[in-house]
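Protein details
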Amino acid sequence: MTALPKPNLIMTRTRTTGTASGLPGARHIRSSRNDRPYHYIVHSPHFAYEEYAVHLGQYDRLSFYGETDTPPVTVHMYDCRANSPEFDRKLVIDVPADGSCVLAIPPGYAHWFENLGEVTTRNYYSIHAPQDSTTPWTPFDDNATYSVGAMGRSRPRVIANTVELPTAAQFLISRAVSRSWLGGATEQGVVATAEIAGELHTYFIDRDLSHQQPALPSSKLATVTGSVGSYQAIRDDSYGIGPNIDNGLADTMTIELSAAWPTYFSAHPNLTLKLSSLLYDTPGAELQLLDRRTDSPTFGASQTLPFPKDPRTVLTIEPGVLMRARGSGTLIYRVEYEVHGKTAPMPELFVPVPAEAELPTFDTPGAPLFHDVVRELAYQ
């Protein structure tokens, strides 16, 4: 029999922007190869898991992000795979909350977390189907939960899926979920608990989100817009954050902000950027934006906007806008992007612009490249 996979820890790679940038010293934490879907979970200060989760088809790859000196996240795991020689084995591991490691948890491992308050989780996951196609299973309902007390008494026996779906199918499923979250969705809201046969059960109903939407930045630039992104409200004022673009790309970035404006702007002639914060309590930051796209009705205008503090808010910056940031504290944020133009020759993606120099102008960008091509370019 082929050996079943075990949990493992992977060190991440980082890349740091130079001084000729509107966000100098920003670290890009590379926790994936962009070949699988992702989502984030932004946890409030008082968030606490009360149960173990078991997936039959989802292979989790988790990294954790918090402010400097945030203690590690403690992960408890049980091997619940009935056909595993290590069935019933428990593993406990502390994972740093600085994004430096990815914890891979195969299907069939029950997992529970401690110390997640104010920590954001990035899950770069893959989806697996059953070996037998007649086995009832759906990727949209792949999360069985067991209370910590029940798991401590006995472990369930499950048969985990083993056939990884093609990449296109995984992203198709991810896009379906993300689109159902556009503008805000809700998982469940607690309304009552009851004890039945010695077990405590919690009952939920959906919550109305119409009065709980975040405030949007008011942009006067035609090339910059704020919107409510793809998110799901979960318990304890926390959020699942999904992709807002079809290619499913997201760079996780962190920067120690300076109170002074950088001496350079960043320009992205052929990129549409979507920026959002990744902490529940984001430090104050602001963006200076200059519209330099010749076909824009606001060409030549400038504006300073607050960086979105609410992780549900997305700031879209179209090609041809100059950008730089200042503030205080550690900013952890997400960059999603579309690439415009042609694959040959490669479109110009980044242009450093000295703040005291004559400002450049940029032409109308081409059409967005197909998402598979963008994912391949993103890891080069």
